[in-house]
Structures are given as structure tokens and as C-alpha cells.
Amino acid sequence: MKRFYTLCMLLLVAGAAHAQTTSTASKYHYQRASLFEVLPIHRSDIVFLGNSITDGGEWMELFGNNPHVKNRGISADKTYNVLNRLDPIVKGQPRKLFLMIGINDLGAGETPEFVLSNIRKIVERFETESPRTKLYIQSLLPVNDQIGRKDRHQSKSREVVAVNEGLKELCAEKGLTYIDLHTAFKDDEGRLRHEYTNDGLHLLGAGYKVWQEILEPYVK
């Protein structure tokens, strides 16, 4: 009986872990992901991969209408959503990839360790299947719980810092480029600056311009 109970518990834990990596996403996710499956990535491309914060950037225009710049952000995506839609990107073997992902995981109650584990899996897929791709791992942006909602994403400042520390360590281990966006976007109290957001999470135009200026040397 004890062995049966232990086996049941192990199956439940395994099922929960599987659910975390295969959870259903929004209709918008599937709409965008299906579009990205038919839009090819080429070896000369520069890909921006992430959630709504990436999705909201007009990256091609921000970088001088560069036709090689491709936006592969999807609003509300979490790390496991990105893992599940990597195939068309990895198969295209882009020249460069800029990744920022994880704040939605934290907002849903996942731990920094969970986020870092999935980002490591993303990195290792490129290492194995597209080793020529130059990876740029961007820090999570700060959040601001004084604007908009004061729960979920906007209350995760400490977790954001923990993820960023882990990302620095991962990049040092893997020999990747870590881009610290957090410092440029935070105020004296560590919150996302008021002039860059109207909801404590997403960026206004001024924020995207700062982001573009930080990335300019890496994109070129």
C-alpha cells in the first residue's frame, strides 16, 4: 500500500511538471505562433524573441528599417510557451537572437529557478541545433507597483532581480552576451521609471527608444 501511494505521488508530481511545460496558451498565442511557422527565418536574420514587451516593439523601424530584423514576440508568453514554439526559429539558424522572457512566469507564481531552468533549455537548443546563432540574453526589466495594478507582475521586483542575477551567471557559464537593461530602466527605488510606462510593466515609446539605443551596438 505504501509503495502504491508513493507511486501515485510520483505520477502526480511528474504530471504537474509536464503541465508547466505544455500548458495551453491564449488564442492570440496560437494565432501569432501559426503565422511565425509560415514566415521563414533566414541565416542573415536578427530575431527578437519574447513576450508582449518584445511584441510591442516595432524593431525593424527602430533599427532603420533593417529587413533582417524579425519580431518574434507574443503577448502573454511564458518561458515554456517560447520553448514550445522554437522550431521555426532554430531551424532558420538566424545570425543573432535577442531574448527577453520570464516576467509572465513570475506573475503567474513561478519561481526564479523555474524561469532560469527554462531559459537554460532555450539556450541549449540553440547550442545544439543552431550553434552559429549569436545569443544575446537580456535582463528582465524592472516593474513598478505604484502604477496600475499592485499585484502579479508589478509586485515581483525581488524575483526580477533574482532572475537577472541568475541570467548573468548563466551567460558567464555559457560564454554568452548578457545585456543589462534593468539598470537603465530603474529609478532610485529600483522601480520601472514613470516616464517609460503607464501600467508599471509595459513600455511607452520613450522606453523603446532607450532600449533601441542600448541594443544598437549589438545589433550592428
Overview of this structure, please?
The chain is an alpha/beta fold and 220 residues long. The chain has helices spanning 2-22, 27-38, 52-55, 59-62, 79-84, 87-92, 103-107, 112-129, 157-174, 182-185, 205-219; strands at residues 46-50, 69-73, 96-100, 134-138, 177-179. It has a single domain (30-219), classed as SGNH hydrolase (Rossmann fold, 3-Layer(aba) Sandwich), CATH 3.40.50. The protein has 11 helices and 5 strands. Strands 2-1-3-4-5 form a 5-stranded parallel beta sheet, with helices on both faces. α9 (157-174) links the parallel β4 and β5 (177-179). 35% of the residues are buried.
> What top-tier CATH class fits best?
Alpha Beta
- What is the N-to-C order of secondary-structure elements (H for helix, E for strand)? HHEHHEHHEHHEHEHH
Would you identify the CATH H-level superfamily? SGNH hydrolase
How many strand units? 5
Taking all Cα atoms into account, the compactness measure Rg is 18 Å
Q: Which fold name corresponds to the CATH topology? A: Rossmann fold
Describe the largest sheet: 5 strands, parallel
Count of discrete structural domains: 1
